[in-house]
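Notebook entry, structure prediction.
Reason for the run: the old model in the group folder had no record of what sequence produced it. Starting over properly, with the input documented here first.
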Amino acid sequence: MRNSPYPLYELPFIRDLKDMLAQKESQMPESVAFTYAKGHGHIEEKIYHAFFCEVNALGTWMHYQGIKGKHVAIIGENSYEWLLAFFAIINGGNVAVPIDKELPKEEVTFLLQKADVTAVFCSKAYRELVEDLEQFSVFSMSDMADYIEEGQQHIAHGNMAYVNYEIDRKRMCCIMFTSGTSGASKGVMLSHESIAEDINGSCRLFVLKGNTIALLPFHHAFGLVVGVFMVFHYGYTIYINKSLKNVQKGLQIAKPQTMFLVPLFVETFHRQIWESAKKDGRDKVLRRMMKFSDILLRIGIDIREKCFASVHKALGGELQYIISGGAGIGTQYIQEFRSWGVEILNGYGTTECSPCAAVNRNFYHKDGTVGLPVPNAKVKIAEDGEVLIQGSIVMLGYYKDAEATAEVLKDGWYATGDLGMLDEDGFLTLTGRKKNLIILSNGENVSPEELEADFLKDEAVQEVLVYEKEGMIVAEIYPRNDFPWNDIPWEGLQKGNCADKEEYFHNLQKQINRNRPLYKQIGKVLLRDTEFAKNTSKKIIRYQK
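New structure, fully documented this time:
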């Protein structure tokens, strides 16, 4: 149960994503790279050799169609075809533009135009997003087998231009749009170098020892680079989960050793585990078992796998790690999953950093932090507390937005907009967003995320947003609908009506204020009966309360 420094992991260096693909074809051609459901209960398998050949065939077909040096969008649900399209695009000198399938048609059209897209690969389910758009050549992912067959024929006849194409790792290969919570999306320009170096560096901090399941959307850097490319580099199988409706079934098929998730997924799994335990009348027993197991673990006796077999079964049966990123996660989730035998390792990144900038290690981690910076990047804290990052993982800039680029790239450092601190061991802790700071009339600065974290520790809080209103710090809370109000822990509370909730959260407010200096105390708590508005990454949009 080591939790101390140890040497970095060593994996083969990859120069670019074409090199990564070629290495796997050479080293383990018959190993299974991807699995996915293909109707009527059939699970399709794709070995590295097949993927390598199909990428080359699709890329050759694209070149034959005149798609060279173009910007090509991909729109659709997670699928094997989506990944084929991405690799085929970027490994032949084109620029991939992943688009969020959940966006309205008007915004999709705007982003396609903003990124100078000329061709689109689209799945059948989202064809309507690009219907009637004559300025784009639209290719259906449903017809990809035909494109591949045609490409294979061209290769057989000696057309090796795509296969032999040499990558310029410094040039842009991808435009990924940010999903901001307080402003318009910006097109982040990533190169083969930035993505490959992020894979090289991150894999030295964390090592994978088993298969995984891809749950996060591929149009996000975390879901694609961390959830797919890094696993591909490790050489393990990725089960492609196409729909969130089939997550439980997918877990049983994939039996993941590691999952890459945003906190919303962790919270959902956590809630389902406790709901199942309560339904079966085992919730109190589960609490006692966790306490007993934790005591034994402190003296080196690990009984978690046997004691919490039902929890592990619900998560596929072999889960050891969850890499959590995209937003902050409460330490209570980390501690409870650890009690069950699953280690949650918090990480940190931004699309602008390709995306991983820091992560806790398998056997060296600190709760409440986002881990250690990736080895091939430098992290420092500015005088105002902002986290600055420098290195090959940093983006080229924002597409056709020199002003926005100049605002964040200064003297070779990327200004993240996040506030944080580095401890004596080099672990990074985030304390909030610079632009979200509440500046009080007395000159004091308050990070709303810091106060929100205190509220989120309470099981009755589903969502919370802290902001300033008329000189007062307000906490607006969306309570958990399924919270057992009849088991309210404070004495003297009346039970069974709406006023009880108000009293509950008034007491919670007092409890939190008790540990805070006066200027950081919550002046008012507001309750709401609907969730906060969110972007497609499921992050609360702060300016739309």
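Summary: The two ends are 44 Å apart (CA to CA).
The old model has been moved to the deprecated folder.
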